[in-house]
C-alpha cells in the first residue's frame, strides 16, 4: 500500500479509537452525570457546562495551535492531545466536580492540538487527486467511533432507568482501554514530506510560517481574508449542529419518558444511528471523491442542508419542548416515536458528513500552502459556536434551538456555495487566460507547419 495512504488509514484508526471513548462519553455525559448526582449529593457538575468549557477552551487554544505545531510537528501535537482525552475519560472513575471541570479545560486545549495536527497531517499526505478521497475515508473511520461506542452503551444501559455505579465504572473502564489503543495507533504514524500545492490556481497564496510568532500572525492574516470570512459562516453552523446532535439531542430522547420504559438505552442507540449516517456519508463521499471534486462540492453541501432541515422538522413534532432539561412526560404534536427519533439521528449524522467532508476537502485544497492555520481557524470558529450552543442549551427550549439551527444552516450553506462558486469562476478564468496566451504560439506553429509542407 502506498505510504501516504497508509498514513491516512493509521490516522483514521487512531482517531476512531480515541473518539470512540470521547464521543461516546459526550453523548451520554448529561445522562451519566444526572445519575451520579442522584447517588452523591456533593457532586454538582453539569454535563452541558462541562461540554461548554471544553469547546470554549478549544476555541481559545486554536489560536495557539499553529505555533505549537511549528515546535512539535503534527504527530507530536496529536499525541499530546490524545493523552488529554485519555485523562478526561479516567476522571469519570473518580467523580469530583472540580476534577471534571479541570479535565474539561485540559481536553479543550488538547483538542486544539489534536485537530489542528490532524488537518495538517492529512493535507501533507494528500494531493489534488486524493484530498477528497482521503477526507471521506478519514471521516468515515472517525465516525465509526459513534457506532461502536454507543452500541456498547446501548447494551449496558438496557432495561435501566438509573445508571448505577457498577454499570458506570464498566463503561468508563472500557472507554479508557479503547482510548489507549487509539494512542498506540497514533504512535505508529510515520513522518511525511509536504505534497505539492493542491489547487494552486485557486489557492490564496499564503506562505507557510516558520516560527511560532509567524504562525500566529499568519493565522490572523488568513482569518481576515474574504473567503475565510464567508467559510466561517459554514464553520459556525457545523459547530452548533455538532453540539446539538452530540450533547443535546440524544439525552433529550432519554428524557422523553413517554417513549417507554427502556428510554435510557435509546440514548446509546441514537448515537449508533448518528454514527451510521456519518459513516455512510463519509464512505460514499470517499468513494466518489474524484467525481465530487470534478462536479463541485456545493451539491453535496446543499443536499446536507435539505436533509438537516427535514430532520429539524421531524424532531420538532416528535420531542417535547422541555426535553433538553430533564425527565418529562410531556409530548409534542404527535406521540413520541422511538422509530422516528432514530430516523432523525441517522439524518443528523448523514447531513453532518455532507458538510464536514466538503469543508475538509475545500480547506485541504484551497489552503494547502497554509493548512495548519486554515484548520486551526476552522476548529476555532466551530468550537466557539459549539461552546455557545452548550451554554444556552440548558435554558433554551427545543423549538428555540431548532430555530437557531435552521437559520444558521441557511446562512452557512449560502456562504459555502458562494466561496465554491467564486473558486470555480476563478479557475475557469485562469484556464481561459492560459488558452489566450497559448493561442498565438499555437497559431504560429500551425503556420510554420503549413509553410514547411
UniProtKB/TrEMBL annotation:
Its main location: membrane. The keyword Transmembrane applies. InterPro entries: Ion_channel_UNC-93, MFS_trans_sf, UNC-93-like_regulator. Signal peptide: none annotated. It is a multi-pass membrane protein. Keywords: Glycoprotein, Membrane, Transmembrane, Transmembrane helix. Pfam families: UNC-93. It comes from the Eukaryota. It is found in: Membrane. The chain crosses the membrane at residues 47-65, 77-94, 100-124, 136-157, 169-189, 229-249, 269-288, 300-319, 339-363, 375-394, 400-419. Belongs to the unc-93 family. This is UNC93-like protein MFSD11. It comes from Pieris macdunnoughi.
Amino acid at each position: 500500500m502506498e505510504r501516504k495512504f497508509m498514513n491516512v488509514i493509521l490516522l483514521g484508526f487512531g482517531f476512531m479509537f480515541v473518539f470512540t471513548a470521547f464521543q461516546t462519553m459526550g453523548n451520554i455525559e448529561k445522562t451519566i452525570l444526572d445519575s451520579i448526582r442522584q447517588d452523591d449529593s456533593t457532586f454538582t457538575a453539569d454535563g452541558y457546562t462541562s461540554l461548554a468549557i471544553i469547546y470554549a477552551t478549544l476555541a481559545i487554544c486554536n489560536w495557539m495551535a499553529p505555533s505549537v505545531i511549528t515546535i512539535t510537528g503534527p504527530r507530536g501535537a496529536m499525541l499530546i492531545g490524545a493523552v488529554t482525552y485519555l485523562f478526561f475519560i479516567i476522571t469519570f472513575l473518580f467523580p469530583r466536580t472540580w476534577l471534571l471541570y479541570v479535565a474539561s479545560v485540559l481536553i479543550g486545549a488538547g483538542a486544539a492540538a489534536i485537530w489542528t495536527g490532524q488537518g495538517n497531517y492529512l493535507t501533507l499526505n494528500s494531493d489534488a487527486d486524493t484530498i477528497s478521497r482521503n477526507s471521506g475515508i478519514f471521516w468515515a473511520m472517525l465516525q465509526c467511533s459513534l457506532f461502536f461506542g454507543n452500541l456498547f452503551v446501548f447494551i449496558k444501559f438496557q432495561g435501566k432507568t438509573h445508571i448505577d455505579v457498577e454499570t458506570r465504572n464498566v463503561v468508563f473502564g472500557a472507554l479508557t482501554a479503547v482510548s489507549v489503543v487509539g494512542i498506540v495507533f497514533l504512535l505508529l504514524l510515520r513522518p511525511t514530506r509536504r505534497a505539492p500545492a493542491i489547487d494552486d490556481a485557486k489557492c490564496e497564496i499564503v506562505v507557510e510560517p516558520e516560527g511560532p510568532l509567524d504562525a500566529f500572525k499568519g493565522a490572523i492574516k488568513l482569518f481576515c481574508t474574504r473567503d475565510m470570512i464567508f467559510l466561517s459562516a459554514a464553520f459556525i453552523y457545523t459547530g452548533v449542529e455538532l453540539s446539538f446532535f452530540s450533547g443535546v439531542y440524544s439525552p433529550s430522547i432519554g428524557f422523553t419518558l413517554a417513549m417507554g420504559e427502556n428510554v435510557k438505552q435509546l440514548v446509546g442507540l441514537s448515537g449508533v444511528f448518528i454514527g451510521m449516517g456519518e459513516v455512510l456519508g463519509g464512505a460514499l463521499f470517499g468513494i466518489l471523491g474524484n467525481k465530487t471534486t470534478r462536479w463541485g462540492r456545493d451539491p453535496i453541501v446543499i443536499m446536507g442542508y435539505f436533509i438537516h432541515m427535514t430532520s429539524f422538522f421531524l424532531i420538532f413534532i416528535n420531542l417535547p419542548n422541555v426535553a433538553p432539561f430533564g425527565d418529562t412526560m410531556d409530548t409534542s404534536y404527535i406521540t413520541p416515536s422511538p422509530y422516528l427519533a432514530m430516523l432523525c439521528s441517522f439524518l443528523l449524522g448523514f447531513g453532518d458528513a455532507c458538510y464536514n467532508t466538503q469543508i475538509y476537502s475545500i480547506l485541504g485544497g484551497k489552503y494547502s500552502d497554509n493548512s495548519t492555520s486554515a484548520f486551526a481557524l476552522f476548529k476555532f470558529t466551530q468550537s466557539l459556536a459549539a461552546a455557545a450552543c452548550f451554554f444556552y442549551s440548558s435554558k433554551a427550549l427545543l423549538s428555540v434551538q431548532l430555530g437557531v439551527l435552521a437559520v444558521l444552516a441557511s446562512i452557512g450553506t449560502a456562504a459555502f456555495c458562494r466561496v465554491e462558486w467564486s473558486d470555480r469562476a476563478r479557475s475557469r478564468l485562469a484556464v481561459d487566460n492560459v488558452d489566450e496566451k497559448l493561442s498565438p504560439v499555437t497559431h504560429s506553429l500551425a503556420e510554420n507547419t503549413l509553410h514547411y509542407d
